[in-house]
Amino acid sequence: MAHIIVVGNEKGGAGKSTVAMHVATALARMGHKIGTLDLDLRQKSLGRYIENRRRYCERAGLELPSPAHVELPEIDASALQPGENASDHRLSAAVAQLEDDSDFILIDCPGSHTRLSQVAHSLADTLLTPLNDSFIDFDLLAKIDNDGETILGPSVYSEMVWSARQLRAQAGLDPIDWVVLRNRLGAQQMVNKQKMESALSRLSERIGFRSAPGFNERVIFRELFPRGLTLLDLRDVGVSNLNISNVAARQELRDLMRALDLPGVEVEF
Fold this sequence. Notes:
16% strand; globular; 9 strands; two-stranded antiparallel sheet
């Protein structure tokens, strides 16, 4: 069966789609067959990113390694049995469409709580949660006291992941490998970084995730989206001399892929 990677949290602006696209194309470049789904049915950032890539390649006459992206199929509500949920059937059908020809299926979730996102989390073999390096986003995982250090208990998103873990256990599936990604790091605010690192370290032991390195805040990520490109495509499109920022960003992606420790993946870029 395909290994399912779910990229999710319940806040926008954490760079989920950027992370999802870079992980998907990195796997494709390393020779793995990967399918993608975008569950944000309104904004469709990942779907638009992949469509931008397809159009750019057509116009430039390029063939870049890319994921196989499918849309969620429509379901005839009249065919549902009493108590069955249309969203569940749409997601199951899309996964089934990709599974036979994929080593990995990557599912990008919306930045809000939806039925589709909830079900996707229960399918995750690897759950990747990008998090801005801020206690505003930390509140997604845990409630913290006024001192900025004392953890009072899990928050809404952690509780949803716990429910997904229970569903997987009841189905006899392996536990979710939950990876929290400190993303969009800034160059300044060292005191805040240290506090976030300490708080995440303490929380990881309580609710069962591990931390991985993410991307620093860089202009290059905004520039890549309109053409559907990623950091690994720059040389293929004629950028022969990467600047220091681009080289550092490629190293961040390399570190992330190694930290994910996906089955059968040897990071070779």
